Amino acid sequence: MQIIRTGTVYDVVIVGSGAGGGMAAKVLTEAGATVMMLEAGVMWDARKDSKMLAWPYSSPRRGAATPERQFGEFDAGLGGWTLEGEPYTSAAGDRFDWFRTRMLGGRTNHWGRISLRFGPDDFRRKSIDGLGDDWPISYDDVKPYYDAVDRLVGIFGSNEGLPNHPDGIFQPAPRPRCYELLIKRAADKLNITCIANRLSILTQPLNDRPACHYCGQCGRGCASHSNFSSPSVLLPPALATGRLTIATNAMAREVSVDESGLANGVSYIDKTTGREHHVRGRIVVLAASACESARLLLNSRSGKFPQGLANSSGVVGRYLTDSTGTSVSGFIPAMMDGHPHNEDGASGAHLYMPWWLDNTKLDFPRGYHIELGGGRRMPGLGTGGGSHRYPSGGGYGKPFKDDCRRYYGSTVSFAGRGEMVPNEDSFLEIDPAVVDRWGIPVLRFHFKWTDHEYNQVKHMHETFRAIITEMGGTPLGSMPTKENGYGIEPGGRIIHELGVTRMGNDPSTSVLNKNCQAHDVKNLFVADGGPFVSQADKNPTWTILALAMRTGEYIADQRRAGSI
Amino acid sequence: MNRREALKVLLAAPVATLTWTDVEAAQAAAAAQDARATAAATAKPFVPKFFTASEFKLVRTLADIIIPKDERSGSASDVGVPEFMDFMMIDQPTRQVAMRGGLAWLDVECQDRFDKGFVSCSEAERTAVLDDIAWPAKAKPEYAHGVAFFNSFRDLTAGGFWSTKAGIEDLRYMGNRSVARWNGCPDEALKKLGVSYE
Fold first, then answer.
1. Which of A62, A178, A377 lies at the smallest CB-CB distance from B189?
2. Which residue of chain A has the CA closest to B171?
């Protein structure tokens, strides 16, 4: 097969265009570097491609999921847990569901915009409870970058002075919805911290982007760019430098190395033509999402790197984690026959509950935060569903129709997102037998929860049920048992996979150094969720952005100093 | 970009072609109404792609029993729920067996009891069967399969009905629009829930 080789040598080749890749591209192009960005999916800009403000009846399937958009046909996530022609496998008895989007900006297009900094304790968990490992960096190392991300991207929230939930540079948070006030009252009674949510949605204009118009549909992509996605916030300034080239439908196959063992480019398939390409770069940054970047490294085998690139430690693919997750809905009689009003608000909850307890007094080592939902949402396919779980018990006819009206908007929901402790049984490797449609060997996942996680989600369920009861309501569904894992979602379902190219000071137990630079290959970097040493009871995106900015600046400094 | 310019962007042509403004939604609803009227005038009935003709008759009958016309809105079939269900069976093929089997279960149950299919049953006969399967908590174990079918049929009928323009208006949902300022929740709603911003 003929490989099309470009004559141009870019300063940097970045694989991936999401939070990490977008940020690296912005920082590096603004520092003067020429950058080639490879994106495996299609071109996408919410300004013209968003389904914002579509009514369910504008489609014959009323917004239902399709194989191509597994969060619903109006959702901005082009992809899902399965992709045609791109399989992956799980080891016998294990299950890991791997979510991938294939579009410019990746998952930043449809994510929940929950933008939580990791706290000081989150970088040194082993020192606190002896489990997992400490990071080679501290909160103080990352804080300036969190601040810069807050300023650049925009985030609302409230400064609370909580010890492990750092304050930020917040725009004003929107007022809570009325049922959220009801939830807060119950939380206050139960001594559960309940504060303004921290979402990367503008409540004031910022950097030429207008404030939110409160349609509550961030997941569809925002046509006015009032929330964060990579194509709306990071790529425009990078493109404005004239130094960023983006290749879409470019599926990376391998990182190439020269005789001295330095990375010198990336080979990829143009999915539209099926032809093989090779692009040359002085520096390679992987930001293809944690597992995809690890796959690239493991597939980049050579005489010099027989275990895959940057893997002399054998740690590439190890310590795979996802957030734990489970959820409960509750029917709240006080919310029946609600006063009709527009309750859309900013997308997602206006309040949330950060971890509020002391793990030394509990039977699980790490915390979780609680996300809220409910109220008078846009009616859709689920409206009036599950009626047999309500007090009416089901039925039909005029009484059923009236019940639907009465019950509309009378439920609340709680979802926990907790910290998993990395373990030796959760990792990925290359499947020895299976390839994707382009012949690239695919990933095989191994994944195990332990009692650390099971006991934690049990606690989530008990907490959610206590809040619902305190609100005078009834949980819809019974408490899951130990046998069904207390309702824990399968690994990968929360889409916070992290840690498979972790950083550390010891090259024998980590892939990257504290600057996200490969120990084995000094001009190779990772800028997605791969470098994380541990999860936290927070969502990872804000930390991916901060680390990618830090890595980008480090690369620019090193280039200037002539050391890479 | 200031707010007014932003709203201009929102309403600009590229977005408008992919999403619906209120005006367009109203136009679409009117067009659908016209199409139905034309279909009625030309006596060209809808031909289901998944359901057989007799299944479709049963689907229409059952959907309208679940959501009948009343003073606030039309029946399930008035807003095209049976046609929507036919589409969903093709769109989500994993639903097909349970749907076809459930409809058959209902007809066989009626045959056993009354020697005729559900559609041919009297209102009292239909009620007798539905009352055995429409309240899962009260249903006898021998009706478990009927209960499971009716739960999912009722869910699909409800979702299909309440996601129409008529259904959304009936529920008095007032969102899915650009709002200049978020003021939180109105006093009446706060009062009803007994909460406040103080």
1. A178
2. A405
